[in-house]
Specification:
Radius of gyration of chain B: 23 Å
Structural class of chain A: alpha+beta
Distance between the termini of chain B: 61 Å
Number of strands of chain B: 14
CATH topology of the largest domain in chain B: Aspartate Aminotransferase, domain 2
Number of helices of chain A: 11
Shape of chain A: globular
Number of helices of chain B: 14
Number of domains of chain B: 2
Helix content of chain B: 40-55%
Number of domains of chain A: 3
CATH topology of the largest domain in chain A: D-amino Acid Aminotransferase, Chain A, domain 1
Shape of chain B: globular
Oligomer: heterodimer
CATH class of the largest domain in chain A: Alpha Beta
Helix content of chain A: 25-40%
CATH superfamily of the largest domain in chain B: Type I PLP-dependent aspartate aminotransferase-like (Major domain)
Order of helices and strands of chain B: HHEHHEHEHEEHEHEHEEHHHEEHEEEH
Largest sheet of chain B: 8 strands, mixed
Chain lengths: 310, 451
C-alpha cells in the first residue's frame, strides 16, 4: 500500500511531529508498505493529487494537523486517513468545545470559564475575574483553549497570579479557559478503535507539582503502564474515557487525559493525534497490551480503511 | 552532475519493542540531567526560512571572501595533501599555536605555546575543562545569566552550578566573595568560576577593570581556578580595550579559552585552551580520549589563512559590519520596544539582553513571536534554576540591518499586545511615552536581591 505520512508543518509541536512521523515511516517500511513522507507545507495538496496515496497517516500535532484542517483537506480529496475525522479533531483540539461535549455526554469535567481576548480588551471582562475566582477557588489552572503539550498552561495560586497566567495563555490562542484545579492522580487512557488500552499514570518525580513543563521532561516524570488501579477504579476510568471518546465523535484512536480524584474521574481533554515517539503514551499503552509498534501502526491503518470493522 | 543514488536505508531500524524501556536500564546516571523541553522543541521552528532568527549566535560567514577560501584550500591540496589528510598531534600543530599566539597577542597576552592545546571549537575546550575538573556534585560558579551552551556541558558532568548576578559591569564580584564565604562555611570549595568577561553571552556586558582585578586577586588568594571564555574580545565596537583576566593573572589561576569561530569561521571548529602545565597535562589526556586530535585539515587552513597576514583586516571588517548592526538593533529597540523594557548596549560581541516587565514570560512570548515569524532565545536558557523568564537574548550579527529592524519590530509588536492585555486585565495605566532621543531604557539588570 502507498502510505503518505504527513508530519511537521508549522505548528509549535513540529519537533515532536517529526519524531512521530519518522518512527511511523520506519514501521511502515518494515511492514512492507510504500512510504511517502511529506513535511506538510504549501505544496501539500499538489503532492497528494500527484502521488495519489492509498491512505494518509497523519502524524501531525498541534495547529493545522490535529485541529481538523488537514483532515478536512483529506476528506475533500477523498483520501482515507488515520485517526479521528475533521469534525472530531476540531472538537478535541479546542478544550472549550471538548469540555462542552464531555458535559453533554453526562461526564464530569472540572468547572471552567472561557474568555477570548476581546472580552478583556474591549468589554472589561477583568471585572468579572473576582467573581469567577471565588467560584473556582485557588489554585486554578489557566490554559489556552487550543494548544498542545504543556505549552502556556499555568497555575495561579492567588488572584494576583491570574493576569500573568492569562497573558501567557493568550500567547498561544485567542481563547483561554480558567479551570478549577482537581487534585488527584494523573491518568491517560488511549483508545484504539473502540478498545481502551491499559491506563498510563504520570507520576511527577521531582520539582514543583505546579510546573507543567516537568511533565514533558524525561527524568522528571515517571510513567507507570499499566497504572496500579483496583478493578472498580479501572472500570470507572475506562468507562469515563470511552464515554468521552464517543461523546467527541472520535474514531481510529485518541488519548483521553483525566484526573482520578477521591470522588472519581474528572475528564480534562482528548488528544486526537497523540504523540507516537519512543516516549509517547499511546505506544507505551499499546505495548502494555501486547501490541508492538508495527502492530499498532498496522491496526491504525486497518481502522482507517475499514472503520466498520472496528 | 552525476545523480546521487538513493540510499538503501534512510534511517537506522528501530527495534520492535518499546525502545526507551529497553535502553533505560543502560543509561548513565548523568543522562538523567540531560533534559529536553517543550522550549527546545519551539526552537526547532526557528529554522523555517520565513522566520527572522535573532536567536542564533551566528557570525556572518558570507563576509568571508570565497576566492581567498578557494586559494587557501587549493594551496593545501597542491602542497600538503598527504599531511593535511593525516592525524596530527593531540595538542595541535605548532603552526596553529603560532596563529593562536598572534590572536592572543592582539589582546596583550603572551602565553607559553606549551600551555596551549588546540581544540575542536571553543565548546570542546569547555567540555575538556569540565572533564578534567568536575566530579559529580562539585560546585561550579557561573554568571547569571551565563552562556546557554555551557549549561548542558556543566550538567552532563553533574556539576552543582551556582550563578552569581551580573550587572552592567559584569559579574558582581562582591556577591561572588560573599558566595565563596558562604560555601566555605559549608565546607565546599568551587572547582572553578566560569566567566565570559568581555561582551558576555548572553548579556552583552563587560566586566569592569576593577572587578577583573578583584576577581584575579580572589583567585590567587584563595587558590581558585577561573575559566575565562573569551570568544568575542576582538569584536569591540566602542570603548577602551580591557585586559583579559589571563593577562592580569599571568596564567597561574586563569584557564583561558579562545576560538577562531567569531573571528574567522565556526564551521572550521577550531578553538583552544591555555592552562597551567599540570592542568594542561590532564586536559591533553582528556582530549586524546575524546577525539585524538583536532581536524588536521582545518588547522592547515588556518595556517594558510594566517600566512596571508590579513586576518586582522578581516576582523576589522567584521567589527565595522557588526557595529552597524548593533547600532541598528539598539535603534530598533528604542523605536519598537515598549517603555517598560530595558536592554543592554554592548560595546562588542554579538548579543543584546533585553528584559521585559515581570508579567511577561519570554518562553510563552516566543510562541507568539514565532507566529509573527521572528525568533529569539528566551532568557531561561541562560539559567539553571528557571530564572530569566522575563528576559531574552537577541543576536545582531547573523542577519543584516533590514532584517534586524524588521525582526525587532515584530517582537515589539507582540510585546505591545501583551502589555496592553495585561493593562486591560489589571486596570493599570500605561506610563508616559519614553523620550526617543535619550536612552532611558538602558538599565540592564535588577539589583541583586530583588525577586
Amino acid at each position: 500500500m502507498k502510505v503518505a505520512v504527513l508530519k511537521g508543518g508549522r505548528s509549535l509541536e513540529r519537533g515532536v511531529s517529526l519524531r512521530s512521523g519518522a518512527r511511523v515511516e520506519d514501521a511502515l517500511e518494515r511492514l512492507g508498505h510504500e512510504v511517502l513522507p511529506i513535511d506538510v507545507g504549501s505544496d501539500l495538496v499538489k503532492r497528494l493529487v500527484a502521488e495519489r496515496p492509498d491512505i494518509a497517516f497523519v502524524a501531525m500535532h498541534g495547529a493545522g494537523g490535529e485541529d481538523g484542517t488537514v483532515q478536512e483537506l483529506l476528506e475533500i480529496l477523498g483520501i482515507p486517513f488515520t485517526g479521528p475525522s475533521a469534525a472530531a479533531c476540531a472538537r478535541c483540539m479546542d478544550k472549550v468545545q471538548g469540555k462542552d461535549a464531555i458535559e453533554l455526554a453526562g461526564l464530569p469535567t472540572p468547572h471552567w470559564f472561557a474568555f477570548n481576548q476581546t472580552a478583556f480588551r474591549e468589554f472589561g471582562a477583568a471585572d468579572a475575574l473576582g467573581r469567577l475566582e471565588e467560584t473556582l477557588g485557588f489554585p486554578l489552572v489557566v490554559k489556552p483553549s487550543r494548544g498542545g503539550s504543556s505549552l502556556g498552561v499555568k497555575f495561579a495560586r492567588s488572584a494576583a497570579e491570574v493576569p500573568q497566567a492569562l497573558v501567557s495563555a493568550f500567547s498561544y490562542d485567542d481563547r483561554v479557559l480558567l479551570e478549577r484545579f482537581v487534585d488527584g492522580r494523573e491518568l491517560a487512557v488511549s483508545i484504539l478503535g473502540d478498545e481502551p488500552l491499559p491506563v498510563v499514570e504520570a507520576i511527577l518525580l521531582e520539582g514543583d507539582r505546579y510546573d507543567f513543563e516537568a511533565r514533558y521532561e524525561i527524568g522528571r516524570t515517571r510513567f507507570d503502564v499499566p497504572a496500579s488501579l483496583d478493578a472498580e477504579e479501572e472500570r470507572a476510568v475506562t468507562e469515563a474515557a470511552l464515554g468521552t471518546y464517543r461523546g467527541l465523535g472520535c474514531t481510529g484512536f485518541a488519548r483521553i487525559d483525566l484526573i482520578l480524584a477521591e470522588d472519581g474521574p474528572w475528564l480534562l481533554e482528548a488528544n486526537a493525534i497523540p504523540g507516537l515517539t519512543d516516549t509517547s503514551l499511546l505506544p507505551q499503552a499499546a505495548e502494555a497490551a501486547g501490541l508492538s509498534f508495527e502492530q499498532l501502526v498496522e491496526r491504525i491503518l486497518d481502522l482507517a480503511l475499514k472503520p466498520a470493522a472496528a | 552532475m552525476a545523480e546521487v543514488p538513493e540510499p538503501t536505508h534512510r534511517r537506522r531500524s528501530h527495534a520492535g519493542t518499546r525502545d526507551l524501556e529497553r535502553y533505560a536500564g543502560l543509561f548513565a546516571e548523568r543522562t538523567g540531567v540531560m533534559r529536553s523541553s517543550a522550549m527546545r522543541d519551539l526552537m526547532a521552528i526557528t529554522a523555517r526560512p520565513e522566520v527572522i532568527s535573532l536567536a542564533g549566535g551566528l557570525p556572518d560567514t558570507s563576509t568571508f571572501p570565497p576566492q581567498s577560501f578557494a586559494a587557501q584550500m587549493t594551496r593545501i591540496a597542491q602542497e600538503s595533501a598527504a599531511k593535511a589528510l593525516q592525524y596530527g598531534p593531540t595538542e595541535g600543530f605548532e603552526e596553529t599555536k603560532d596563529c593562536i599566539l598572534e590572536v592572543m597577542g592582539a589582546e596583550g597576552m603572551l602565553p607559553d605555546p606549551d600551555d596551549v592545546i588546540v581544540t575542536t571549537g571553543g565548546q570542546q575546550a569547555i567540555d575538556l575543562v569540565c572533564k578534567t575538573l568536575i566530579d559529580p556534585g562539585d560546585v561550579v560558579i557561573c554568571e547569571a545569566p551565563t552562556y546557554p551552551g555551557a549549561i548542558p556541558t556543566l550538567c552532563s558532568y553533574q556539576a552543582d552550578v551556582v550563578q552569581v548576578e551580573c550587572d552592567e559591569d559584569g559579574m558582581q564580584v562582591e556577591a561572588l566573595e560573599q558566595l565563596l564565604a558562604d560555601l566555605r562555611g559549608e565546607g565546599r570549595r568551587p572547582k572553578f568560576i566560569y566567566s565570559v568577561p568581555s561582551f558576555q553571552n548572553p548579556a552583552g556586558v563587560t566586566m569592569s577593570l576593577q572587578r577583573r582585578r578583584r576577581l584575579v586577586e580572589l583567585a590567587r588568594a584563595q587558590e581558585l581556578l577561573v575559566v575565562e571564555d573569551n570568544p568575542y574580545g576582538l569584536l569591540r565596537y566602542g570603548g577602551e580595550p580591557m585586559p583579559p583576566l589571563y593577562q592580569l593573572d599571568g596564567g597561574d589561576f586563569v584557564i583561558y579559552l579562545g576560538t577562531f569561530s567569531k573571528i574567522l569561521s565556526p564551521g572550521i571548529r577550531l578553538g583552544w585552551a591555555v592552562a597551567p602545565p599540570p592542568v594542561m597535562e590532564k586536559i591533553v589526556l582528556g582530549k586524546q580520549a575524546a577525539d585524538l586530535c583536532t581536524s588536521t585539515l582545518t588547522q592547515y587552513f588556518v595556517r594558510e589563512y594566517f600566512a596571508e597576514r590579513r586576518w586582522q583586516r578581516y576582523v576589522d571588517d567584521l567589527v565595522e559590519i557588526y557595529r552597524t548592526r548593533r547600532d541598528s538593533m539598539v535603534e530598533a529597540l528604542r523605536t519598537y520596544f515598549p517603555a517598560e523594557a530595558t536592554w543592554t548596549e554592548p560595546e562588542g560581541g554579538l548579543f543584546i539582553w533585553a528584559t521585559l516587565p515581570d508579567y511577561i514570560d519570554t518562553s510563552d512570548l516566543l510562541a507568539k513571536a514565532l507566529r509573527a515569524d521572528v525568533a529569539f532565545v528566551p532568557g531561561q536558557a541562560a539559567y539553571v534554576d528557571g530564572r530569566g523568564s522575563h528576559s531574552m537574548r537577541l543576536n545582531f550579527s547573523g542577519v543584516d540591518e533590514d532584517e534586524i529592524r524588521e525582526g525587532v519590530r515584530r517582537i515589539g509588536k507582540v510585546i505591545a499586545e501583551q502589555v496592553e492585555l495585561y493593562e486591560a486585565l489589571t486596570g493599570e495605566q500605561r506610563p508616559p511615552e519614553p523620550q526617543q532621543e535619550s536612552a532611558p531604557n538602558v538599565v540592564p539588570f535588577r539589583k541583586a536581591g530583588e525577586a
